[in-house]
Design a protein that fits this description.
five-stranded mixed beta sheet; binds 2-acetamido-2-deoxy-beta-D-glucopyranose; 28% helix; six-stranded mixed beta sheet; 23 helices
Length: 808
């Protein structure tokens, strides 16, 4: 009893102190805030911090650095009352003043730069902005793993610097690794595109860039591996409908086959955890086959923790639990009040299902009663809290991290980071059309430029969503102005381009210019979170504007498209008055700079489309809500993504030109692999199309194999043109002919290589047969199949067979 009274007094005195220094930006040495309370907070277990609180740090086991993180987290959790525990289960964790545990805001974002979208991070006079890299869809188009990792490293350096200054958290709910199944999806800009393998490789590189501390990348005890900042792969899973013709993510039930789940929707998450060792996963708003993802024990406990062995915590998307109650009416409730009662049981049970942290207030508000009512065991809460505190310990929140101590203002928006943002945009930009080598423009011959279109002076549009405040902007207009006399006309009043009243002045500008650059495309008013597209066309009068300007232009016409999703620009592809087309995604704060570098030949473009650009009619053939990747013949639905869609496109996945030409020569390649099965391994039947030859041992379960069979080849890439340039080599595998309902091809690897004009580089690839030649069957078995597989480079520039012989 006496102890309780003592605790109460300590608690009270600290609480009143917190109120007196409540303002976030007040810097005060005694503030008990963690991440956002001021620059004098260094780490929880700072002895002077404890003594300021009237506590002796040596009496708290969770501050004893000789103990393991697991033991320390257990010590901390064991000291808390139930009421104190539940106050830590929301994104705004309240802390436990009597234990010296500060509050902590878990929610920060860093999708393509430190963002102020989450409440854990903010900008002010001291740190007015952070480097805003291109949006992920453009960075992906670079197909350069080291670039992806390096951006993650730059972002985490800025995040750590801002954390040191009390302006940012340590836990970042990025990246978004959902596969773009449908071209209408509004969030394509946040993602690495439509191929699950590419998405997974992007994810693991970006995550490692954010998280890894140099020298500890390969630590074997993953429970204590240090973290620079914590990253989060989201939104798990099968989440890719935001709001399409009234169907929204808060009500949508994604009906997904187990085959598509294994092959497409789960793949990037598996790679993010296994290859990236990410420390958090976020479950999504939608349901999958009837069950809200945040309430699905199979998806959370069995798969993430069981099969993939996550070392970290699982968080809900923000207010997912509220969505579960009011959107999905999970557990069949109809009346509001009934929902409130019955669903307390529902969401209290979630804790037992594996969701550790609630972005929202449901856990904090309702879990205590749920325990009292016997609906959830307190030990489940303990387990979740331990998952959370181990992550904070790995981040140095408790002990500090000397490696990052010196980071500060000079490390945010540094020259190198702004240059990296420019480089990322240059590397990502895709050259789609370049008739008669119009590009690069010879700057000596160009005195007058017409820079026209709704994106000609783009700034905020270039950084898309989940952005912060950028260090600066270089708009297209700003960048092109240094190349000559520029005449600027919008042509359209914004991308929606509701009427043709501004077209004439743009035509006038083009008539007198030595070259015309048209900046058109989309922005967040057309494709965004909570906003899917209904068509694949340029909005409003943009097409008319482009054609009319092109028709009267005196000089060559370059069309630059800013968009995330593909746009049907067949009209421009076919229009002889439009000499060149570039896709620039949303190119980040230095977008204008990068585009000008490409247009004037200071950089030779090498980006490749990470999405199929479908023709406009595609979206009339199937509803966005049909989740299946494979064609559905009975309904006339074509397949989705390059893996399953065999119709015509505007530009295919992987497309992209260069100012030079590359020739490939295959140097060495394995042509066959023999796999002899042991007694416990069995031949599995697999469905073949009628009248196709089926080998006697058609396939074997990958889970039954050791999977140590590798194959490889070398490819010599010769630059046979006149300019230095980078080539992206994309390697696909094609399964043996005759297997029913399989993908036509799948990416199994890629490398971006720089080759000087006239020179060549040899690139070696090594593949694991299980990972690269596997097929997911309709019953969701992952199988290695016998027969003649094909390895194909790029758009069939080189291909060769590899014979897989499986014998009992
Ligand atoms: C890949 O990106 C890095 C930046 O991380 C850059 O230095 C390198 O030149 C790029 N590689 C190619 C082939 O473009
Ligand atoms: C970690 O392992 C990778 C891959 O084996 C290796 O390239 C890297 O050098 C290792 N890092 C350290 C710090 O040992
Ligand atoms: C949660 O609790 C807070 C504080 O008591 C209250 O303001 C809020 O309305 C509650 N929210 C819900 C959804 O119950
Ligand atoms: C271009 O955009 C910037 C930033 O929005 C603005 O300050 C500037 O006035 C614009 N330039 C023109 C010529 O409209
Ligand atoms: C066309 O759009 C401009 C800019 O939004 C507006 O000022 C003008 O009134 C519109 N004209 C017509 C005919 O709707
Ligand atoms: C490209 O150049 C050739 C040869 O000079 C010419 O015949 C052709 O019309 C040009 N094509 C276009 C689209 O300008
Ligand atoms: C494309 O797919 C459709 C639907 O499955 C099929 O009928 C057609 O034969 C395929 N075409 C080619 C060229 O593979
Ligand atoms: C490049 O390859 C093409 C097609 O194989 C061939 O016609 C051409 O001669 C090659 N060019 C050089 C310079 O090797």
């Amino acid at each position: 009893m006496a102890i309780n009274i003592f605790n109460f007094l300590v608690c009270f005195s600290i609480a009143s102190f917190v109120i007196s220094s409540n303002a976030r930006r007040v810097l005060d040495s005694k503030n008990v805030d963690g991440n956002n309370g001021g620059s004098n907070f260094t780490h929880v277990c700072d002895p002077s911090r404890f003594s300021d609180l009237g506590l002796d740090v040596s009496t708290f086991g969770f501050c004893d650095s000789k103990l393991s993180y697991d033991d320390r987290a257990k010590d901390l959790v064991d000291r808390m009352t139930l009421a104190e525990k539940v106050r830590q289960l929301g994104n705004s964790a309240k802390g436990v003043p009597r234990l010296g545990l500060p509050k902590y805001e878990w929610w920060s974002e860093a999708l393509h730069g430190v963002s102020n979208v989450g409440p854990g991070t903010y900008f002010d006079d001291l740190i007015p902005g952070a480097t805003s890299f291109p949006t992920v869809i453009l960075t992906t188009a670079a197909f350069n793993e080291s670039l992806w990792k390096q951006i993650g490293q730059a972002v985490s350096t800025e995040a750590r610097a801002m954390y040191n200054l009390g302006r940012a958290g340590l836990t970042y709910w990025s990246p978004n690794v959902n596969v773009v199944r449908d071209p209408r999806w509004g969030r394509a800009t946040e993602t690495p595109g439509e191929d699950p393998y590419v998405v997974g490789v992007y994810a693991s590189n970006y995550v490692r860039g954010l998280q890894d501390v140099k020298g500890t990348e390969n630590a074997t005890d993953l429970n204590s591996r240090p973290l620079k900042v914590s990253s989060c792969c989201k939104h798990y899973a099968a989440y890719d409908v935001d709001n399409w013709l009234g169907v929204d993510r808060y009500h949508f039930d994604a009906r997904v086959t187990e085959q598509d789940m294994a092959e497409t929707f789960l793949k990037p998450f598996e790679m993010c955890i296994k290859d990236g060792d990410v420390s958090s996963v976020m479950c999504s708003y939608n349901r999958v086959n009837g069950i809200p993802t945040c309430a699905d024990p199979k998806l959370l406990k069995e798969t993430i923790r069981g099969d993939w062995d996550l070392h970290g915590y699982i968080v809900s998307d923000c207010d997912s639990l509220e969505v579960m109650v009011n959107g999905h009416k999970w557990l069949g409730d109809t009346k509001e009040d009934a929902a409130a009662q019955a669903l307390k049981a529902g969401y209290s049970k979630l804790i037992t299902l594996g969701m550790d942290l609630d972005c929202g207030v449901y856990y904090t508000n309702f879990t205590q009663n749920s325990v009292r009512q016997g609906k959830v065991k307190e030990v489940e809460i303990d387990r979740s809290l331990k998952n959370l505190y181990v992550v904070l310990m790995r981040l140095g929140f408790f002990d500090g991290n000397p490696t990052f101590k010196s980071l500060g203002k000079k490390d945010v928006c540094s020259k190198q980071h702004i240059e990296l943002a420019t480089e990322a945009a240059r590397e990502g930009i895709v050259l789609l059309k370049n008739v008669n080598e119009t590009l690069p423009l010879k700057s000596k011959k160009i005195k007058k430029l017409a820079v026209v279109g709704p994106h000609a002076n783009a700034t905020a549009a270039m950084i898309g969503n989940y952005a912060g405040i950028p260090c600066q902007f270089t708009s297209p207009l700003g960048a092109f102005s240094s190349y000559g006399e520029v005449k600027y006309e919008m042509g359209c009043d914004g991308v929606v381009c509701a009427n043709d009243s501004l077209i004439f002045p743009a035509m006038k500008a083009a008539k007198h210019a030595d070259a015309t650059i048209i900046f058109a495309g989309l922005d967040l008013s057309v494709e965004a979170e909570s906003l899917d597209r209904v068509d694949l066309l340029l909005p409003g009068y943009q097409t008319l504007f482009i054609n009319q300007v092109a028709q009267v232009s005196k000089g060559p016409v370059i069309l630059v498209i800013m968009s995330a999703g593909g746009v049907d620009v067949s009209f421009a592809k076919q229009n002889d008055n439009i000499n060149a087309i570039l896709w620039a995604g949303y190119p980040g704060e230095e977008g204008g700079h990068a585009i000008a570098d490409v247009v004037f030949g200071h950089y030779n473009p090498g980006g490749r489309l990470p999405l199929t650009w479908y023709e406009a009619g595609y979206v009339d053939m199937l509803p966005m809500t049909s989740m299946k990747l494979r064609p559905i013949d009975s309904l006339g639905y074509p397949g989705r993504t390059y893996k399953f869609y065999n119709g015509s496109t505007v530009y295919p996945f992987g497309y992209g030109l260069s100012y030079t030409q590359f020739n490939y020569t295959l140097r060495s390649a394995e042509r066959s692999l023999d796999i002899k099965l042991r007694k416990s391994q069995h031949c599995r039947d697999i469905e073949y199309k009628d009248n196709e030859y089926k080998p006697p041992c058609p396939s074997v379960l990958i889970d039954d194999l050791e999977c140590n069979h590798e194959f490889g080849f070398g490819i010599e890439v010769k630059n046979v043109g006149k300019r230095d340039g980078s080539e992206v080599i994309i390697v696909y595998s094609k399964p043996p002919i005759g297997i029913a309902a399989t993908h036509t091809k799948q990416v199994i690897g890629f490398k971006r290589v720089f080759v000087k004009a006239g020179k060549s580089e040899t690139v070696n690839f090594v593949f694991n047969a299980c990972k690269s030649l596997g097929v997911v069957n309709y019953n969701a078995y992952n199988l290695l199949t016998s027969g003649r597989h094909t390895i194909m480079l790029g758009d069939d520039v080189v291909s060769f067979p590899i014979q897989l012989n499986i014998k009992e």
